[in-house]
Amino acid sequence: MDQSGSMKRRMTTPPPSERSTLRRLPQRASYEEAVVHSILDEGIVAHVGVAVDGQPYVLPMVYGRVERDLYLHGASVSRLARQLALGVPVCVTVTLLDGLVLARSAFHHSVNYRSVVVLGTAVLVTDEAEKTRALEAITDHLLHGRWAEVRPPNAQEMKATSVLRLPLVETSAKVRTGPPRDDTEDLALDCWAGVLPLQLVARPPENAPELREGIPPPAYLPKTRAGQ
Amino acid sequence: MDQSGSMKRRMTTPPPSERSTLRRLPQRASYEEAVVHSILDEGIVAHVGVAVDGQPYVLPMVYGRVERDLYLHGASVSRLARQLALGVPVCVTVTLLDGLVLARSAFHHSVNYRSVVVLGTAVLVTDEAEKTRALEAITDHLLHGRWAEVRPPNAQEMKATSVLRLPLVETSAKVRTGPPRDDTEDLALDCWAGVLPLQLVARPPENAPELREGIPPPAYLPKTRAGQ
């Protein structure tokens, strides 16, 4: 694994726990809260891990953040939501993929990415006001401004939805940026090297088939990035 | 969680194990091997979960596939590689994000996605020929055609790299496609609904700073998708 080209940021707000301290490539680690939050805010899907009898399960979930809390939600009857509600250890990982790092040697190939790992124990949210705020955060995390326009959950929907809170205490970020860093003796090789940047872009919105006439896509949709 | 708009594909090659059978929204489940392989082949980063003393850890890793085996690699000295090499249960999840599903009700918001979950026990690859094939698969998974052009790993690099094989036996796929499906009574709301498609696109390649003059980006780089 390539150890170079990394952005070094290492601060201690909050200080990392022993088990959330990166041992490999510590120059890629960031404990700065602002970095952790910015990665979480840019991501859309988290990969949530729980272990059942030693077998880990990792499932994609949407999420939201309110200050120093991460919120997950799921159907109340789902296996994962029930498991999480038991108060088991959880790991929530969000990864943003920024590019392919194409070195002259196979060994130094890598990806540019920004990732956050959150360890902790999720807690079932039972307070209705907090639950509503969390669902607002999750909805607006998908698309900022959406909550204000849509029909909020009714009592039946609230009951059918479990919301879980995971404090952003044991967090770590890992970031790789920049070009490949080949061994000096490989620089003379007749092989292209560089980065292929990758970006998640929005395409033009597609109206729902039953959409009433005369309702345009909302202004808060991100501008389609095609062509930029 | 939204239960609609799903693509139903359910076949049994190989038959799912009890623990890899989806219980929630089974209409989103696919056990068809070709679907599992196509999702794995399109993904770039997997989220790999292992549990240590009941605490799950989920880390992003690149990977490769050779027929019915998934390969992971890491620095031999890394915690995760050493943990995996012990023969512990592992979960490898790959998720492709295809769009935001924007319903008229908060409750029916969702994402369009394709995901694969692989359960099993990874095995350390000790055969040098298989290890080389796996590294070729991982490199070409990043960018098809790359392996043939780059300097292959030397003995020291091979020693510094652990390769792990996870058989694609206990696999399941989950797919959501299509528009939001709101409750009938919400269709009259004065709220836009639809899908915002998302796509991971390549931007123009960036040459490494020390690139020798006269070496153009290779033809096997994907065409930049901007503007399409």
UniProtKB/TrEMBL annotation, chains A, B:
Any Pfam family matching the protein: Pyridox_ox_2
Residue numbers spanned by region Disordered: 1-26, 207-228
InterPro entries: Pyridox_Oxase-rel, Split_barrel_FMN-bd
UniProt-recorded name of the protein: Pyridoxamine 5'-phosphate oxidase-related, FMN-binding protein
Organism in which the protein naturally occurs: Melittangium boletus DSM 14713
